[in-house]
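This is your field. Have a critical look at both lines of this record:
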Amino acid sequence: MPRKKETNEVVFDEASLNAEKVVPVTKNKVLENLEIIEKELNRQLEDIEGIGPVRLKKLYALGVYNIEGLLSQGEEWISRHLEISFSEARTIIERANSIHSNDNIFSTMYVSGKEYMDYRLRNIQYLTSGLKELDEILEKRGRGYESGVITEFYGAYGAGKTQVMMVACVMAQLPKNACCLTCGQTEHLDSDKCKTCGGTIWLGGGLSEFDKPCRVMYFDTENSYRPERLYEIICNREIIKTKPQTATQIKMQANKEPLNDQEFEKAMRFVDNVNVSRPRTSGLLISYVNNLESIINGDFCKICHKRQININLEPTHQNHPNLKKDIPVETHDFVRDEQVKLVIVDSLTGKFRKEFEGRGELSDRQTKMTSYIKVLENTAEIKNVVVLVTNQVQELLGVTMGDNIRPVGGHQIGHTLTHRIYLKKPQSVTKSKIDATLVDSPNMPKQTISMELGFKGIQPLSQ
């Protein structure tokens, strides 16, 4: 038990920490804490002073349904769309920030360096890329992608950007901790196969719990995502049990097949957890990203993909407590979707390059592109999710020495993205070697590794 000093300060010794007994907590204290938590979780836009029914309806029509979405937009956007002064918009943002329920230490004006470091150690998550060498250039301990920021892969067509993204879709659904992917046991992990059931040993690095894969949100703007390719990566990486292969099949790196129907269903569960969106215009892409906060939270019905309330502030499902007569609603109950922990945009600038052509539209293109990337950046930080994006490239004229390939978007977008990786494809069309260069990162120095595009998506170079 804890020892008490005369000052009533509680000091724990080693014996007390290992003891099974705990300090009793009164029932009233528990109820009080639950009421506080419930009150914080139920904070809505209408709780902010200055947002009445008219402004609330406008925000809903613009895709802003919660406080986090409002904070992602900023004062200038609120001032323009709600037709209010900038000072009034700033006041609304300050009030929203003061009641922001997330564990965000930057809701205050400033914090100490130690507080910020403790916050990062406690909250920042990491996702393996599926390739050890790539993980090591991204993070000094080899943990891969960092949550809360945007990581960009840019390169010419055929450089493997989409393959990297699809491997990440699989990795995110795997457990955080080391275990057997079949039976979940966490002992005897010193070999490739589980000694109990023969399943694949996973060394950790995902974003999920065993047998509870998370959702992935994939914005496909270039029609390059293929679910059948994702299925092949799952089988070839032996995430599930697969049939034995002949020596010839192994040499040819033939695609592996599930061992039975049960293993096939496991593989398809990974495929099903990747939600794919195909915005056909830049305007739709901006609209979808504006709704990203709600998509991550699972605020859309899992069955019909509708919200609990529509833009007219009316309920959409029969189990809503404020349901009124003569309002058409869905016959099923509202079913909240699972949390999203990985967001992918493939590609970041493709739609804008196609729709805004010529130097005369360059300014308008940059304004719209910067605005939606700002929302993406704020959403990544507020929700603390891993965000991966791909980007197209352009050739700089007049560069005679060195590589003249640069990512699209210019300096404005470059300063928004935290980690930037350049994928350089080989000169020969018959080779699959890819050079990945970490161009910009606050954590690691510039360095290059080589990898190969193959039946596992991305993999080490063949010997």
About this structure: The chain is about 35% helix and 15% strand. The chain has a mean pLDDT of 84. The two ends are 59 Å apart (CA to CA). The CA atoms of residues 97 and 107 lie 6 Å apart.
